[in-house]
């Protein structure tokens, strides 16, 4: 039986998907090591019951001073992924933010893992003298096809192969611009 997750199709008995996890690379991150994606994908695989093939951009030794090589490799991996997950820790990198946009450029389903109470997902956020309830960062909200709060919710999404109604592409940028112009 053929199943789908966004644009991804896979045979039910194989139950494996290729995942690119965007986020922090530095060993000075909240994870404290470069290879945190291995543990992340192993935990997600156990919780979801689906084999996660980790398309890890930190595997392999390439020249980090060769910008075209680094960005080209990451683009290749994102384009090859069935699903892109962005781990929205409070110390997400510039690269992680760019990888979110690259996922949209290649029209990949993008799931944001933004834990409640973190920088990107708050019960309340005070800004400019106003308090906003159930705040999700606007860039996260518009860019991601789905935002989840926990590994369990992420695993359920993958296990149930919850369909993404429409996988967003970069047109959300022009749509937001037009929305702004009409309102102001």
What name is given to the CATH topology?
Rossmann fold
**How many beta strands in the DSSP annotation?**
9
Q: Could you give the order of the helices and strands?
A: EEEHEHEHEEEHEHH
Global Rg: 17 Å
How many structural domains are formed by the residues? 1
Q: Structural class given helices, strands, pairing?
A: alpha/beta
Tally of helical runs: 6
Largest sheet: 5 strands, parallel
> At the first level of CATH, what is the class?
Alpha Beta
Low-confidence stretches: 9-13
Q: Can you give me a brief rundown of this structure?
A:
By secondary structure, the protein is α/β, with parallel strands linked by helices. Helices cover 37% and strands 24% of the residues. The protein has one domain: Rossmann fold.
Structure description:
This protein has a single domain (2-183), classed as 3-Layer(aba) Sandwich (Rossmann fold). It has six helices and nine strands. It starts with a strand and ends with a helix. It has 184 residues and is of the alpha/beta class. The model is unreliable at 9-13 (pLDDT under 50).
